[in-house]
């Protein structure tokens, strides 16, 4: 059982076998998955944190957590052949925050340098987005095996990823799939990225909490989602409106690319059928009337899925290639 109450994936790893790690760091905590080159997940665990910490504090917790997992397996940090780290902000290939305000306290030094200083070992890849890791998990695992997929991660903020010709499209500047920073209101609230009226300022967790405050008090996003699942009228209608707003915002991308599937994951997807129905109806109504061939399907919701996707990237893109 993992620390967040979910069952970990466990397989047997022969002594001396190649070992890789996928790591995810976000506002909720640290997720780590370790495994082998055949997509065998040896261990996957989640360590909750109270918000995204400063770089040095996060690394201390991360390294201690990783060492603990490896020790339980009878392995050491130096045995890791590949390490891929996913972070909740656009980064360049060296781990620098492309937009420093989106990752406060992490922009003064490179994550990779800090990681080497703390562990003596360099990560194989930095700057993979959390949404790309989830999309990679879906495509490599065969759950959604179609060639072209638009993945939308609807959680505290909105992000996404593109799978084109069966491969994750990373782009050249580290900001691919930042759907939450598409502008929906030029006169709206100032976003963490420095622009006004981004999608995140309208449907992100802080905005939804503010909308519910007058009638329901100080709720978390999880409270709102639970109430919506339980049939609370105000919460359910709000989440339907969120789905409609997301659909209107990503419609140009869908119409332009014409993907086989639009996959929606993240905690908001747990609202279920009303959320998906509102999204699909709005997307269908807004999109170009000819050539509609996509389906809207649910994606991964587990907090550990990002780490597992990062692990698969580590084994496929680093261990096998090198």
Automatic annotation (TrEMBL):
<comment type="similarity">
    <text>Belongs to the ROK (NagC/XylR) family.</text>
</comment>
<feature type="signal peptide">
    <location>
        <begin position="1"/>
        <end position="20"/>
    </location>
</feature>
<dbReference type="GO" id="GO:0009384">
    <property type="term" value="F:N-acylmannosamine kinase activity"/>
</dbReference>
<protein>
    <submittedName>
        <fullName>NagC/XylR family repressor</fullName>
        <ecNumber>2.7.1.60</ecNumber>
    </submittedName>
</protein>
<dbReference type="InterPro" id="IPR000600">
    <property type="entry name" value="ROK"/>
</dbReference>
<keyword id="KW-0732">Signal</keyword>
<dbReference type="InterPro" id="IPR043129">
    <property type="entry name" value="ATPase_NBD"/>
</dbReference>
<keyword id="KW-0808">Transferase</keyword>
<dbReference type="Pfam" id="PF00480">
    <property type="entry name" value="ROK"/>
</dbReference>
